[in-house]
Design brief:
Blueprint (H helix, E strand, L loop, with lengths): L1 E11 L4 E2 L5 E8 L4 E5 L6 H9 L1 H4 L3 E9 L2 E2 L5 H5 L2 E4 L12 H11 L4 H15 L14 H15 L3 E5 L7 H16 L3 E5 L12 E6 L2 E7 H5 L3 H6 L24 E9 L9 E9 L3 E6 L5 H8 L9 E4 L2 E3 L1 H7 E4 L12 H6 L9 H11 L15 H15 L3 E5 L7 H16 L3 E5 L3 H7 L2 E5 L1
Parallel strand pairs: 4-9, 4-10, 7-8, 8-9, 14-19, 14-20, 17-18, 18-19
Antiparallel strand pairs: 1-2, 1-3, 1-5, 5-6, 10-11, 12-13, 12-15, 15-16
Length: 471
């Protein structure tokens, strides 16, 4: 059993504590053995903070001021060492790469048991049992670096399972997964349910697990505002979920939406002879002889993890030197170097493209030279994206969703004619997803051509006008 009794928390060192986003205030929550509980609510409401309190990362790794009691099976988590808590609690993070310690899959599954000094026979028995129950035989003895995002998430789940934890914490585990990989994750969760595990998931994308959970705990501003039992949650309409600020509970494959690639009368953007192959690969990941896309529209690029969607964006914006294709746009041909000035790409891992010491500086360096009233203009852009309160914050200190919005702010500031976005709503709640959709529609109204790689059916419905599915 997991118990949080009158828990308040704020991040910061002993010299400086900050109440605000991600902090908690007077949280009381009891989770019974074998229960599956969903934690949901807006970005920054404290979902991940609760998971960190349960698995001991707070206060052992993330410093801060904790008040109240956090108990796992009656023992105070903050009085235990991390390795003691890890015997009971396993965590699957949003980005599985952040929890890998080996370069091969079999070694990764064995790692936790090896750290505990279990006999070799027991380790192999545990691995064989997990591999059989999860049906991941084809993933064994593989390089971690050659796996898709969905396959990496399976290995992360399997490594937690092999370690034998009875309490499983899931922190936005579907954020970077395609539709099929999300269904595969659902199957793994179902296996844990059959095994009687206690599962606590912090999620925005609730559709794939809405019918599996025993209880939904909805948070805002560090407090629990609703607790919905199984029967109560099943009576909620989509309008009611929207009023609560929650994502849709209806699971839909993006490929089933079926928007056209272009329609008669569209202005066109054309790709010619785009072919790209990673070093050492035997087949190209991008192989396009001739592709016509609508200019001035918002085109969703959909397809499975590993289909080449991100690689295609990288080729279009000129990041891949080995891709020599040509882009035709507005009566002009653009080679790789030309495309670097035409396009702006918002990466999936936005932390890789944020370089300055403050949020405001990040937008300022993206503005074209000689922009009038540049500071006021930058602040106005940040205001549109609900980032004005973080002007002086270091970009790397922002949450994942905030980094996404900051990268989009930089794209808006750049004034480029073609905007490429790679999973811009991964990790975003309903409100910020809709704000992103509204922003993209605003950019489209200004004549911007937008290509967005996405697994998010809600985003496609909210703003996309065209669709290109990579089989």
């Amino acid at each position: 059993m997991v118990e949080l009794k009158d828990v308040s928390f704020c991040y910061g060192s002993d010299e400086r504590q900050e109440y605000g986003e991600n902090s908690l205030s007077d949280v009381n929550l009891t989770i019974q053995d074998g229960e599956f509980v969903l934690l949901t609510g807006p970005s920054g409401c404290g979902k991940t903070t609760i998971l960190r309190l349960i698995n001991g990362l707070i206060p052992h790794f993330y410093p801060g001021l904790v008040k109240g009691e956090i108990l796992v099976d009656g023992k105070a988590v903050d009085s235990q060492e991390l390795y003691e808590t890890a015997l009971q609690v396993g965590t699957v993070f949003q980005n599985p790469r952040s929890q890998f310690y080996n370069v091969d899959t079999t070694g990764e599954l064995a790692f936790g048991c090896e750290n505990r000094g279990l006999p070799e026979k027991d380790i192999y028995r545990r691995i064989d049992d997990t591999v059989s129950r999860f049906g991941i035989e084809k993933l064994m003895d593989r390089s971690i670096f050659q796996l898709s995002d969905g396959e990496k998430q399976k290995i992360a789940c399997a490594s937690v399972d092999v370690a034998g934890a009875q309490i499983i914490l899931l922190d936005e585990p579907s954020a970077n997964l395609d539709y099929d990989a999300t269904l595969a994750l659902r199957d793994l969760i179902l296996q844990w349910r059959r095994d009687g595990k206690t599962i606590i998931a912090a999620e925005h994308r609730i559709a794939y697990l809405w019918d599996l959970i025993d209880r939904a705990v909805i948070m805002r501003n560090g407090k629990i505002v609703w607790e919905l039992g199984k029967e109560e949650k099943d009576t909620l309409t989509q309008d009611a979920l929207t009023e609560m600020g929650l994502r849709s509970a209806i699971q839909e494959a993006p490929s089933d939406i079926g928007l056209p690639l272009f329609v008669e009368g569209d202005k066109l953007l054309r790709l010619k002879d785009f072919r790209f192959m990673y070093h050492g690969a035997k087949t190209p990941v991008v192989d396009i002889l001739d592709l016509t896309i609508s200019a001035g529209e918002i085109t969703a690029i959909t397809g499975a993890n590993g289909a080449g969607k991100t690689s295609l964006l990288s080729c279009i914006c000129g990041l891949e030197k080995r891709c020599k294709g040509m882009l035709e746009f507005e009566g002009r041909s653009y080679n790789r170097r030309d495309r670097q000035k035409l396009c702006f790409m918002v990466m999936q891992d936005t932390g890789n493209q944020l370089f300055t010491e403050s949020v405001l500086e990040e937008v300022l360096i993206s503005l074209p030279k000689n922009t009038e009233n540049e500071k006021e203009h930058a602040i106005e852009i940040l205001r549109k994206l609900d980032l004005e309160a973080f002007l002086d914050r270091h970009p790397q200190s922002l949450s994942g969703g905030q980094k996404q919005r900051l990268a989009i702010a930089c794209a808006l500031a750049s004034g480029r004619k073609v905007l490429l976005l790679d999973e811009p709503t991964s990790g975003l709640d309903y409100t910020h997803m809709m704000e992103t959709a509204d922003l993209l529609k605003h950019l489209q109204s200004m004549g911007t051509t937008i290509l967005v790689v996405t697994h998010d059916s809600e985003l496609i419905h909210a703003c996309c006008t065209r669709q290109y599915n990579i089989a």
